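Predict the structure of Chloride channel protein.
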Amino acid sequence: MVYFKKLNDLLTSFDLKTSGKWFVLSCLIGVVAGFGAIVFDALTQIVQHHSLVAIAGFEHPQTVGEYSFYKDQVTEVNFAPWLLLVVITLGGLASGVIVYNIAPEAEGHGTDAAIDAFHNKRGEIQPRIPIVKTIASALTLGTGGSAGREGPIAQIGAGFGSWVATKLKLSARDRRIMLAAGMGAGIGAIFRAPLAGALFAAEIMYSNADFESDVIVPAAMSSIIAYSLYCMSLPQALRFMPLFGNELHHTVDSHFELIPYTILSIVLSLSAAFYVKTFYGTNRLFKRLPIKPMFRPAVGAFLTGVVGLGLFYLYDQDMRALSVLSTGYGVLQEALTSASKVGIPLLLTVAFVKVFTTSLTIGSGGSGGVFGPSMVIGGCVGAATGQFLQKLWPNLVTQPEAYGLVGMAGFFAGAAHAPISTIIMVSEITGNYALLLPTMLASTLCFVLCQRVHLYQKQYPSRLDSPAHRGDFLIDVLEGSRVSDVYDPKRKIQLIHESKTLDEIVHSLAGTQQHYFPVVDDAGRIIGVFSEDDVRAYLYDETIWKLALARDIMQPDFMRVTPDDDLNTVMQRFTAINVEALPVVDAQDAGVLLGMLHRKETIGYYNQQLLKHKRASDEQET
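Done. Here is the predicted structure for Chloride channel protein.
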């Protein structure tokens, strides 16, 4: 705690409007995200080597830029397909048991959870979630589950950024920025694309063409540091090499080639819609399974293995068919460098089946990212489409591999509504800007055609719609204020027992200024509420004064609030139901009455905060 206090003192010495504070925080997040990428990569390889390789004899191919710690170790175990099925099922089981018993929030692909925390949870992520996500995802990927690596690594950075902001007692706005910067750093490191990582963090929050502008500079610094740190951990020959190597120097030979790229965009849009629909349809099916949630990832992993092995035997035991398992980057590497050697049938089959294996692995509750599989699916669809168009127009389409690269960008741009970051990512993956024009065309068209497709369902349309920016366009002086800041728990409240007659109630009203009365039972628990107006309706019928009880005139379905409720929400409730007071109850037990919150005192608090905000603004202008 002493270190956090010193760091907080250092940060407060900077002007909050300068980049000095964000330089310190961004560097810190970048370092953690970079180390997180290294640790996760190593952990995944350890699990893979001691399970898939040592037991089943299966080692899936990697990209040119990836490094294996075990490349010099010779494994003499022959490939055993049915042992692979056992390994992948046990991996899903272990992942499910860990996640659902420690941190259920870590299920699935994780990016949606970070987006949701940004918009709806003031940027708060529980510290245990990134740790559980890392272990569970390493088990899922290392044992052959179809998933990506970006989800857990992004959550490591996002979780750490949120945790540091909380420890330093920074504002909710700063916490959100640090969360997003951590996401960008994770993406930048694992995909060797630091600029794309920074833009991804700013763009992925919204489904429309909108950016979280405050995030870009901190995310850029974090992403570059994480990328550099991760690359420095690699052997000299692989340092700062693009993920798919240095040989992807494709070009556009004619402006007329934009015509086949337009056709590719339509194919990619249809593929993206199919991917998202299948993914969430599978997720809904698994939620209906009458078994405990912790066992669902095992079922999904088993089915993933069955599908993968079925494809393996369908293609005469071609090991490339098993790219539908794990990351699948091996077949994507070959598709981007020599698509003709893979062929259209295998590329389309891998892309189609990868949709199902990813849906089974992650849709069942398994842990892993959806970005990586999207790259494989889009790349394979693009390379296959490029080969097909080459047969139609051999003089126009001369490099079908380039269509694989553009396919990676277009597919994800449509599915995730992130066109700008994917355009930059292709340039960073290839190391040049030769494909910038067709990539921009495909990403833009896919983005426009896939407006109803949402891979990340926690995205908001724009900053105007996000709760994170409530008050940016209309000053929100109540942001961060709670009911506990206004109501007085010591104020004496007259309680009415449910058995009290109307006659007794009428006589007791004469001696109090109270207008709203909570009704309680024998145990003192609130069961309803009534106002003076509710009593007034009975005043002209004295025959029922002795018969009517408090339980007869009370409102049993009443609105209530807790001390932790947001005052913005409470103000909306006051307006919606037009009452002057609301019961304040315990957050854990709605029957325990703590006090009454009055509209008049809430408006008074609002005016005080508004005046305070105006004075602060005047001081800044002076």
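The CA atoms of residues 70 and 238 lie 16 Å apart.
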